[in-house]
Amino acid sequence: MYGYPINKTASPSNSIHSSTIEVLGEGSVTATPDRAVVDLGVVTEGPNLQAIQADNAKAISNIIQSMMSLNIPREKIQTQDYRIEVVNDYVDGKQIFRGYKVTHLLQITMDHVGQTGKLVDTAVANGANQVTSIQFTIAHPEFYENQALSVAIQRARQKAYTIANTLGVTLGAIPSQVQESPRPAGPMPYMATAKFAASSVETPIEPGQLTIKAAVRVWYLFA
Fold it and tell me: What is the dihedral of CA 65, 71, 74, 76, to 10 degrees?
């Protein structure tokens, strides 16, 4: 919510003059993602824990090797989750042991977003039976963050001059204070869901566009 108070009382900073116009400026820019982060892996179940652990480990090893065959460095492949759980059935209110479940999820980072579908298909072909998340981000968002910040400052200045012209007062050319509002560490990741196509067709996954936002609170002196 925007506020345009003509302050005659104490301001947020002791350095701000008592006659000020306070405005909030918001800016945003869009950018094409250049990095994909995919969480996928293997879930195995059965009554023999050692057997399903071995099956799981073999499948994960195959997936890792297949990812490296796509020129994804091993350091871009990281275990995200590993769990062993007891699986029970409930019959007539009674808990009956059924077996175990082993879950091993990998997080894979790829700098060629156009190959995300191929990455998913390759992993599935080599044993993956879980794809839990696909995110698209920007490797170096600073350029776009600065653009959004510039837009936010320009909009704040336009608002301040509109208020000053309407009131018939003279606005100082330079703000007395500028405060950047907190923002996330980076652009909000774009979430996608893989839709598995026929084996002869690559899974279509679209990276879309990311929106990077910034906001500032600006105080101008007027006379």
Answer: -120
Model confidence pTM above 0.90: no
What separation in angstroms does the CA of 216 have from each of 70, 170, 171, 183, 210?
43, 22, 18, 10, 20
* Residue 8, pLDDT score: 37
Nearest residue to 32 (alpha-carbon basis) of 151, 138, 109: 138
Q: Out of 10-24, 30-44, 180-194, which region has the weakest mean confidence (pLDDT)?
A: 180-194
Tokens 């879980």, residue located: 130
Phi, psi of 169 (to 5 degrees): -115, 165
pLDDT at res. 1: 39
Q: What's at 48, amino acid-wise?
A: N
pLDDT range class, residue 184, cuts 50, 70, 90: low
Residue 160 has φ and ψ, to the nearest 5°, of: -60, -45
> What is the C-alpha to C-alpha distance for residues 117 and 72, in angstroms, rounded to an integer?
14
Q: Is 176 helix (H, G, I), strand (E, B) or coil?
A: coil
By three-state DSSP, how is residue 44 classified? Answer: strand
| Main-chain phi, psi angles of 198, to 5 degrees | -60, 155
**CA-to-CA distance for 171 and 70, rounded, in angstroms?**
59
Residue 118 host element (H or E): helix 116-125
